Amino acid sequence: MNSLRNKTYVALAEKASKIKPQEGDQVIATVYQDVTTSGRVITRGEIVVPGGNTLQAYPSTKDFPFHFRKTFTPESGPIKREETPAVEFSKTSVIQRLLPGKIPTPLGFDTWTYRSEAICGRTLQALSPFSNLSYEDSLHLKPNLVQLKSYAQIALIICETLEELHSKGHCHGDLTLHNAMCLSGERQKLPILIDLAGSANLNALSESQQASAKDDDFQELYRDLALVQYFLGEMDNPHSRKSLALVNDLFPSEIACIINRLPGNQNESELS
Amino acid sequence: MKIKMFTVLEVVGQFYEGDVPGTVCFVPNNLIRGNKLDEGPYVLEGWASLNIKAQPEDMGIGSHLFPDLQKPYANQSVCAKIAERIANQRPQLVKA
Questions:
Q1: Which residues contact A54 (CB under 8 A, 6 or more apart)?
Q2: Does B64 touch chain A (CB under 8 A)?
């Protein structure tokens, strides 16, 4: 689906080509783990070279040198929310038809695993300078302003993709920074939405529920956009403007108060 | 090959190639038990996330980066750069 073959894709394809065919899948990279507070791994996201059994069960995996495999356990959050691999496969297939090129192709599922095309990009969680930090620590960062500007552009194209999804009558339903990716090539940045098991048809919701579902989709992105503008100054984009308008709703009052001062306006000369 | 120890965010460990070719990651010594990574604490303590964020923007997949413990990494200038990028992500520890 995604024609962008970046450095990571090329490196993984080379690694995959050295794998000898076997019955079972061969894991070539681990890209995500959900862990309990006691350190037990309850969900694994891995890049695998399909084994003979997988190729037989899911023939479309033959089209890719490697693919993404997510393995759940009964303790996994999505399983507890009844967002099973079957649900994820079915909902992702629907959204993929609406947003071709912006959703990884679903390849198969069974009771505990979901498979899709591998996207060789990083999630916003792995790109955001603010992820894993408290709001207070975020405001004390000394970020690289050029990188911050690049991150802001990625967050904004994800916002536009969400807007497109909403305009086609669906919401994501669980848009955390882990569930949006950027596929970066030398000249391109492509937005990708993943983990669509919580997506919903907006037409099945009341008007107020629709508005709330759409707002929820933007919430984490708007938090980061507001923090970005604390450092870079106000950006000229409808989503960045809206994020600033919502600062008092998105953050505790003492943090909102600091962000509203927007000292980033003073940093503009460093970007040129 | 003798592996150099580094201290990153006040934790002693070593650098390894990441399981995504072209990446390099730091692993605290106390998370390696008998040549195996203690994956849960590696994620919980934030190293999986800190390591992917320390790579160039177009390297790495997903939200986390895991090491290939069979491949210690020895280029010290690259290790120092990754160590610095990790430290810069934690202003509360850098401040201290």
A1: A24, A25, A48, A61, A108, A115
A2: yes
